[in-house]
Amino acid sequence: MSESRFLGYCVRLWQSGYRVIYDPAIRIRHFEFASSDAKSERAFNLQKKNRSVFISKQQAFLQSQWEPSAANVLLARQRFKKGCRRVLFIDDRLPRRDLGSGFPRALEFIESLVEAGCFVTHYPLQFPHELWEEARQFLPETVEIAANRGVFELQDFLEARQDFYHAIIVSRPHNMVVLNSIVSCHSEWFSRKSLIYDAEAMFSLREIIQAEVNGKPFTPEKSDQLIREELAITKYANRIITVSQAEADHFLRYGKKNVFVLGHALDIAHKTPGFQERTGYLFVGAMPSDASPNADSLIWFLRHVWPIISAQGAAHLDIVGLCDAPTVMGFASDSVHINGRVDNVTSFYANARLFIVPTRFAAGIPHKAHEAAAQGLPMVVTPLIASQLGWEEEVVIGESPSSFAKACLALYNDPILWETKRASALKAVERDCNRQHFQKTVELILADPQVIEQNRE
Is the pTM of this model over 0.90? Predict the structure, then answer.
């Protein structure tokens, strides 16, 4: 079938109310003039004839299309549904769930944008080189990936698409700093779009807590300065997203407006193994270095808590997630299994009896804690994590090595306590990580200002 005939067929399908769909996983290699002599005038004349036939039959259709112009290429390259909002999502890298560090939430965010009918472009700013085949295993198929550009090509990309996007979402402070440098010089590129900062986590709060853990607390003045410096990067943002109400309150306290809370979106696993069918402890989290919050927490646990637990009888601990932390690797033994990155953590959640979150410094809300609770796995956490989650009755809390070990042993060996905490945590996740509420919040974030005001009233 010639190109003009094929196009005419597609137009007739649209006019009849049908859709034209394609599979992005399929690649077609087209050889021009494969069935005829490339130098033959007959082939060119046939193309001209068919083109004329198409134009004469489909004038009304052609008049409703974009004018042929380089400026219209982006808008003309695909058929956007009426009211479709085009969103640019800037983050460190593509959001693989197994990376932790806020990327599971970023993926949930992108999935909700697509569900809301948005066209989404993901721009991996810090780690721009991504394998297309791998990305397609977890990103929605309709998401465009602006790969292999990075920091140095962002300005050119934004200039080329200055009239294309309705909203730009930027995650993490250092990425917002990069965008600010461009906005300050080219504000006209951003005048007709929403510029949204997704805090993901307040890094200044984590730094303040880490200083306290290390025995070198900041003065109140220093802490206030760090918070103000982080909040200052939102100067060009007209909407701000945080992961918890506690962090939203910091932005509101310092005079910021249009602040939204977007936590996690999770489904509850209603049928999971019970107390007697499970054994062992589980830790989940990426550890790119010994200095990371996850590695720090696990090193503390293995040095000070695990020996107390092990002294009470045979016990084993599964550690799941990227592990490039040398000190953590040094703890590997017959009872401490370092599994590294896995494609699916579900089986680990189903087999373990107890989940540990011994985090000593962090910000935001730990996705792994919500995920474990959603899988029916009760947990022992530090006061910091309990505060971030806003949970008390749903978890068992331990602060010192002895109290954390005591909490672990009690929850691990008491089936009644175990069932009580599991049921409470499941209810809390159903309340706090409701997917429908998450979706509505995403749609409100993108809404027109008057809609946002109506929802405040």
Answer: no
